[in-house]
Design goal:
Length: about 70
């Protein structure tokens, strides 16, 4: 499997999950009982997307930490 195909599949997966999350947030039952379900799902949403996007932000963060160490010396 080529890198382009792998990247395309990963982005399609992220898009599919994001559309699903939007459908969940659009449901009226999320807002009727004092926003409690919406708040709890928002916490889950943040955790879920930090895990799903980890292959993107972890290498960037590691590079930035390396540059920071170089600049401090």
């Amino acid at each position: 499997m080529s890198l382009e195909k792998l990247l395309e599949e990963y982005l399609n997966l992220l898009l599919k999950y994001f559309k699903y999350d939007l459908e969940i947030f659009e449901n009226p039952w999320m807002y009727i009982p004092l926003l409690i379900p919406a708040f709890l799902y928002l916490i889950f949403f943040i955790f879920k997307w930090s895990v799903l996007t980890a292959p993107i932000w972890i290498p960037i963060r590691m590079c930035l930490k390396g540059f920071e160490r170089i600049l401090k010396k």
